[in-house]
UniProtKB/TrEMBL annotation:
Domain named Alcohol dehydrogenase-like C-terminal: residues: 206-337
Organism expressing this protein natively: Spirodela intermedia (Intermediate duckweed)
Reactions performed catalytically: a primary alcohol + NAD(+) = an aldehyde + NADH + H(+); a secondary alcohol + NAD(+) = a ketone + NADH + H(+)
Cofactor annotation: Zn(2+)
CDD domains associated with the record: alcohol_DH_plants
Name of the protein: Alcohol dehydrogenase 1
Similarity comment: family membership: Belongs to the zinc-containing alcohol dehydrogenase family.
EC number: 1.1.1.1
Length: 380
């Protein structure tokens, strides 16, 4: 048993003291895991848009000081009371939405929206006792999405940890912890394109390109990438995107352009921007009779989806998904296996890498819209 079990660990963490201010690497104290909790040594984390969104805290409940980060990979250091399916040394991916395995959602084959551990960005404490496990000089530092992976050690509810193959390279499968599973799952679990079909992907960031990767491995023959930034088209070719449409190049709605390109519409579409007009276009660009559109991007609070009901009566289907419909503990280990069996590619999503001490550079890259995923290597 390691000497840290049951002890407070002092380690480095990147603390967001205030909205929009650079993170500061601080020495924090990390309390031992309580009942149903696990303390995890983080080895790799990567920056996802959601971290930046809650760091900026525009129009949201600000929760500071806080340790952000949710896309990561690590190793179990110790487990709290009642944790039976994980032990020190296990390799895990923390996930921002959990799977308690006991609620109605977890028991349903059709849902991954666990009632107990569903995402709650306003919560900065553990669900067990309502307290933070991080502190500096006795003052609490709050959690984020139940994961807070911008720390050398973090405490996570057991229901938010996927135990994965110990042979999987943590620096690569790290990206399955959020964005890539979200996009890939939206296509393979929800849109389910048939071999030889056509798929439109709106938004060619990491999530959209993961949706395209899902279409590629499903054997789609036409993958149409839609983005307002034509600079993204070259990179998207690596992800199987075969054709590009920049809505700015056309003086009519992009759904009309796509309908014309495809003889009536695409078989499937996946919307990964969160822009309300892109969502409407993504729905209206699918073929009548069988087309399915899947919404992934997160809209603004006051957005309203408006379309003619006739689009439904003519047998188009609109769906939405959360975390690619994956149940974190039950399904993510299998996605890691898919990568291990070379049934999906992950390396191409990781375009940058920085050491933990330079984590603010990862924020700069994302704010400039450069690259897909910036891997942050912990420096234990
Ligand atoms: C998102 C998914 C939709 C709600 C906010 C968080 N996932 C992670 O980045
Ligand atoms: Zn994320």
């Amino acid at each position: 048993m390691s000497s840290t079990v049951g002890q407070v660990i002092k380690c480095k963490a990147a603390v967001a003291w205030e909205a929009g201010k650079p993170l500061v690497i601080e020495e924090v104290e990390v309390a031992p895991p309580q009942a149903m909790e696990v303390r995890v040594k983080i080895l790799f984390t990567s920056l996802c848009h959601t971290d930046v969104y809650f760091w900026e805290a525009k129009g949201q409940t600000p929760v500071f000081p806080r340790i952000l980060g949710h896309e990561a990979a690590g190793i179990v250091e110790s487990v709290g009371e009642g944790v039976t399916d994980l032990q020190p040394g296990d390799h895990v991916l923390p996930v921002f939405t959990g799977e308690c395995k006991e609620c109605d959602h977890c028991k349903s084959e059709e849902s991954n929206m666990c009632s107990l551990l569903r995402i709650n960005p306003d919560r900065g404490v553990m669900i067990g006792d309502g307290k933070a496990r991080f502190s500096i000089n006795g003052k609490p530092i709050y959690h984020f999405l139940g994961t807070s992976t911008f720390s050398e050690y973090t405490v996570v509810h057991v229901g938010c940890l996927a135990k994965i193959n110990p042979l999987a390279p943590l620096e690569t499968v790290c990206v399955l912890s959020c964005g890539i599973s979200t996009g890939f799952g939206a296509t393979v679990n929800v849109a389910k394109p048939k071999k030889g079909s056509s798929v439109a992907v709106f938004g060619l960031g990491a999530v959209g390109l993961a949706a395209a990767e899902g279409a590629r491995v499903s054997g789609a023959s036409r993958i149409i990438g839609v983005d307002l930034n034509s600079d993204r088209f070259e990179q998207a070719k690596k992800f199987g995107v075969t054709e590009f449409v920049n809505p700015k190049d056309h003086d009519r709605p992009v759904q009309e352009v796509i309908a014309e390109m495809t003889g009536g519409g695409v078989d499937r579409s996946v919307e990964c921007t969160g822009n309300i007009n892109a969502m409407i276009s993504a729905f209206e660009c699918v073929h009548d009779g069988w087309g399915v559109a899947v919404l992934v991007g997160v809209p603004h609070n006051d957005d309203v989806f408006k379309t003619s009901p006739v689009n439904f009566l003519s047998e188009r289907t609109l769906k939405g998904t959360f975390y690619g419909n994956y149940k974190p503990r039950s399904d993510i280990p299998g996605v890691v296996e898919k990568y291990m069996n070379k049934e999906m590619e992950l390396e191409k999503f990781i375009t940058h890498e920085v050491p933990f001490s330079e984590i603010n550079k990862a924020f700069d890259l994302m704010l400039r819209g450069e690259g897909l995923r910036c891997l942050i290597r912990m420096e234990h």
